[in-house]
């Protein structure tokens, strides 16, 4: 990537530098690789937060820059988690079964080992046979391909059907929400092949690395999550900084005019919808090994609504805003719902934040939408505008069109 790109997008360079310093600081203070000031559980929380920031960047691309309010992107996030979770659970169970059968007087056949693995995994739903969707579960490489392929293909098919029919606005949001709900209801069934309501568990144990403590493993996943966020952010910044990004913003602002100019609006929408679904799948594949478990509740429609709330609070249409929103809301949510926030005794009623957090979050969303549409990221914009540089025609970001018009009138 040329120096020109970073000169035109200084916020990208600043973001990468801040992320690098953050990773260095956490590593030096972590229990697994540093001074032990930060606990292993909090390192996992930070790693998961970086994954949520990555899916928020994807959401900002599709909503903040293209104007497609997708309420189904967390489904792609969950599918990525399920794909890597299948390999983790299979390989982990296989190691346990092989170890236990090694002491048998007669060596077990390969078929008996597979049956024993199936019984261990699916016994909880009254079955012992592997469904067809588990046919690649014994291969890490193929499951990693599925992490990208499954969300991508689902988004491609769904987007092609929706965009070719020119479904837009609130109707498209309802359709994406219906897709998410349908997927979650399917996964809740025991015969879905993914253990129904039980989901996949024990994902924090990496096969073959039993001797590695969780403190060290948490740092590895934290680094991987930070690297994924850096690459995803760089990719997103590259897309929105060029002509492709200008077309996306044009579609967001006036879809009919862009179509009149001869652009394939549906093609641009389908591309960005599919690419962001893949990004969400990768984020999910890194998130759930740190969470240790995934179940259909993770794909519930409300999760995708939370994702939109993060981006709105952070400030849509600016990538750093999406990251700020995801990190801010995720950490504050962990603080409130983890019982760390002190209850407030009002005399006649005790305010327990565990019960009131969702109301606070919803109220914040309403207030931000009404009074601060730029979100938290707007504070960065205010600081940047006070230091307005001599731009000499350089792009100034998502609101560049309005800024150029303002400058032309000055």
| Percentage of residues in DSSP E strands | under 5%
Work out the radius of gyration: 23 Å
Average predicted confidence as pLDDT: 85
**Coarse shape:** globular
Q: How many extended strands?
A: 4
Largest beta-sheet details: 2 strands, antiparallel
* Secondary-structure-derived class: mainly alpha
Key phrases:
single chain; 410 residues; mainly alpha; two-stranded antiparallel ribbon; 16 helices; 4 strands; 69% helix; globular
Report on this structure:
This protein is an all-alpha fold and 410 residues long. 69% of the residues lie in helices and 2% in strands. The strands form two sheets. It has a two-stranded antiparallel sheet. Strands 3-4 form a two-stranded antiparallel sheet. The model has no long low-confidence stretch (mean pLDDT 85).
Entry summary:
The protein has 410 residues and is mainly α.
Topology readout:
Elements: H1 3-8, H2 10-29, H3 40-65, H4 73-101, H5 110-122, H6 140-164, H7 169-188, E1 200-201, H8 214-241, H9 243-253, H10 255-260, H11 265-291, E2 293-294, H12 301-314, H13 319-337, E3 344-345, E4 350-351, H14 353-371, H15 377-386, H16 400-409
Antiparallel strand pairs: 1-2, 3-4
Helix pairs in contact: 2-8, 3-8, 3-11, 3-12, 3-13, 4-5, 4-6, 4-11, 6-11, 8-9, 8-11, 12-13, 13-14
């Amino acid at each position: 990537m040329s120096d020109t790109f970073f000169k035109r997008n200084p916020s990208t360079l600043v973001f990468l530098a801040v992320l690098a310093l953050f990773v260095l600081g956490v590593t030096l203070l972590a229990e697994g690789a540093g001074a032990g000031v930060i606990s292993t559980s909090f390192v996992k929380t930070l790693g998961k937060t970086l994954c949520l920031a990555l899916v928020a960047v994807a959401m900002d691309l599709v909503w903040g820059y293209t104007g497609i309010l997708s309420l189904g992107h967390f489904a792609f996030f969950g599918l990525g988690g399920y794909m890597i979770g299948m390999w983790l659970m299979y390989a982990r169970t296989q190691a346990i079964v092989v170890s236990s059968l090694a002491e048998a007087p007669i060596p077990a056949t390969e078929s008996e080992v597979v049956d024993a693995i199936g019984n261990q995994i699916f016994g909880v739903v009254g079955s012992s046979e592997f469904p067809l969707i588990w046919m690649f579960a014994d291969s890490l490489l193929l499951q990693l391909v599925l992490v990208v392929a499954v969300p991508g293909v689902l988004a491609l098919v769904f987007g092609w059907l929706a965009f070719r029919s020119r479904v837009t606005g609130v109707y498209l949001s309802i359709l994406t929400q219906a897709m998410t709900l349908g997927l979650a209801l399917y996964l809740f069934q025991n015969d879905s092949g993914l253990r129904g309501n039980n989901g996949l568990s024990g994902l924090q144990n990496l096969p073959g690395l039993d001797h590695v403590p969780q403190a060290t493993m948490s740092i590895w996943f934290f680094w991987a999550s930070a690297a994924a966020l850096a690459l995803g952010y760089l990719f997103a910044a590259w897309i929105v900084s060029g002509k492709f990004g200008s077309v996306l913003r044009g579609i967001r602002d006036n879809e009919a005019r862009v179509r009149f100019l001869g652009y394939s609006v549906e093609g641009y929408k389908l591309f960005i919808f599919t690419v962001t679904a893949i990004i969400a799948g990768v984020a999910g594949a890194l998130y759930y090994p740190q969470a240790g478990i995934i179940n259909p509740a993770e794909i519930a429609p409300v999760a995708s609504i939370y994702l939109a709330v993060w981006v709105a609070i952070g400030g849509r249409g600016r990538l750093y805003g999406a990251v700020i929103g995801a990190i801010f809301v995720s950490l504050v949510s962990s603080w409130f719902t983890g019982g760390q926030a002190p209850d407030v005794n009002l005399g006649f009623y005790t305010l327990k934040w565990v019960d009131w957090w969702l109301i606070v979050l919803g109220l914040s969303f309403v207030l931000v939408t009404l009074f601060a549409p730029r979100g938290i990221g707007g504070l960065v914009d205010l600081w940047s505008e006070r230091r307005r540089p001599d731009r000499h025609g350089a792009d100034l970001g998502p609101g560049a069109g309005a800024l150029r018009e303002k400058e032309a009138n000055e």
